[in-house]
Amino acid sequence: MKNSNKQNGTFVISLDFELLWGVHDHETKESFRQQILGARTAVDTMLKLFDRHQIHATWGIVGMLMAESKEELQSYFPTLKPQYEKAALSSYGYMDDVGADEQNDEFHYAHSLIKKIQEYPNQEIASHTFSHYYCKQPGQTKETFEADLYAAQRIAKEKFGVELKSLILPRNHFVGDYIESACKAGFCVVRGNPKSFAYNKSSMLARVFRFVDTYIGICGKKTFVMKADANIQAVDVKASTLFRKYNTRLAFLEKYKVAHIKREMKYAAKNGEVYHLWWHPHNVGENTALCMAQLGEIFAYYQTLQEKYGFDSKTMYEAAEEIRNENSDVM
Ligand SMILES: [Zn+2]
User: Fold this and answer.
1) What is the Å distance from ligand 1's center to 102 Cα?
2) Per-residue model confidence (pLDDT) at position 232
3) Does domain 10-330 have CATH number 1.10.10.10?
4) Which of 29, 59, 173, 179 has the most beta carbons within 10 angstroms of its beta carbon?
């Protein structure tokens, strides 16, 4: 039975959609071929699955994927570009690898896929920055960050008629004082990190903790109560858990991964908290059928929790709006 005295829990899903733009500093078209081509097919499969289970999802899309040709892509480049000390991180340095259009280059363009996302109900088009921007990298500045976000807004508006509201920063590099810049550029919702040290450090130890956490949960609870902070204009809809790729070498662990996600969902549903699951389409670009079976199980469980506890699927923007409305009711 639904407890009417308590706030209902919220199930948030977000995707970091970037194709090769998010990985070109350590992968190539050849080394990442299967994941990218698989990701393109998985977008379609996921949309159908979301629709079947009435899942609301937020798609954080790299703005560069939105162009239809190389010429058009370059016309959206901001004048101020990040000059990272580690030059390999800059998407602007890979123009020689970019083909003429989506038909000729499935690694750097996704206009047709984004159109498809727009055809489905309850899907939010959000931003993963214009150029897959790295906020914490030496060499970039607040000015180049702002210029990147304005470019993201411009291409989304002109190509898809969308005013972007939610921002997912690459590698979840969440920099406190950049929030003001994000707000100025129209972003009122951001995705921060879980509180545990393992999700706020990039050391090897933190990575090991994150890996183990996926299967048995050693980093404490990652569900949370969302609050709008009057001093910060943007609402932080923190990430809870990364839905990791199917690990064929350690396949026996896979059932623990799904069981852990379901435990966290149940906790959020029963306690009126938020649970935010996220991944990249390329994480499910290999072993796609196995991944979809897992997601299908997770979404069927969501529907059980919805009936029992009123657990509700929301996009990042919808989840943030609910908090804002509650706050304005109180005032
Ligand atoms: Zn990314």
Assistant:
1) 20
2) 62
3) no
4) 59
